[in-house]
Amino acid sequence: MKGTLRYLAGIAGPNGFGSRSTAEQVTQHSFFPCSHLTAIITGGTSGIGAETARVLAKRGVRVVMAVRDMKKAEMVKERIVKENPEADIRLFEIDLSSLSSVARFCSQFLSQDLPLNILINNAGVFSPNLEFSEEKIELTFATNFLGHYLLTEMLMKKMIDTAEKSGIEGRIINLSSVIHSWVKPDCFSFPKLLHPIRYNGTRAYAHSKLATILHAKALSKQLKDRNANVTINAVHPGIVKTGIIRAHKGLFTDSLFLMASKLLKSISQGAATTCYVALSNETKGLSGKYFADCNETNCSDLANDESVALKLCTQSRALIHDYLDESQKHSLLNVCLM
């Protein structure tokens, strides 16, 4: 109850920001050298992703939008450039549910010889019915976690090299959700994540969001062991009425939204935590953490379990290796940390 009252009142956390802070507000006085940064944002054609792209571009960051729908991306780019004619927006096509598409995107991006300072793993889906990716992996898990896992692995060397050359800390942000805390340890099974026996859309979504935190925990340790100047953190954007939330039929209904309207964030408020972690000088050196309302907070005990995190990433990499073709496997071996 106390946390809900603080949320409704918009009470700020230790850093002066809170649930009612917007993406523009939290980046207004950033000490990070934004004009020299390049960021990749997945799923930037609507909602939180589009607002994140807009605000980062406004702060002088070169924004690479990795998107599935290029027509929608062109419209977002047009709006951003209209507001900020100096914005540098690059568009690339990607389908996060397809491992081969992710590998193609990485190859195309790396061929541009651009630096990479920030990677925002933002794209996400909620599938109310059981669907599978082209690799026959459950669609929610394939898109929200596995595709981003591969994307991060294949771009890691570029991020480490960029940080070494520029002296600027690289940052990876995984979009998660408070719903990750609904997952019980005995229900989190890798084979069942890939091929659920009794599918439930909300459960699948929660599992995928737990996986994004575990990924941050495991990779953070690897980066620290390597003394790499790159951090990775997970963020909960809050409850925003985006396309994903509207898809939660039976869990979040229109009537519930009406009653809980005071709890919902605007899109700009939903993008604030991502933008804060990406650009704030106050998050320098923080890695393997979980943020909500622009402040570090606690995640579930399961999300903090290092053994579970390591096992998930080990199993994920083995699975990916089985699906990629020989040239893609070679590329992965050349860039990965593990």
From TrEMBL:
Q: Which InterPro entries is this protein grouped with?
A: SDR_fam
> Which source organism?
Arabidopsis thaliana x Arabidopsis arenosa
Q: Does the keyword Disulfide bond apply?
A: no
Q: List the molecular function annotations (GO) for this entry.
A: oxidoreductase activity
Q: Which domain of life is it from?
A: Eukaryota
Does S-adenosyl-L-methionine count among this protein's keywords? no
Give the UniProt family note. Belongs to the short-chain dehydrogenases/reductases (SDR) family.
User: Which keywords belong to this entry?
Assistant: Oxidoreductase
Name it. Answer: NAD(P)-binding domain superfamily
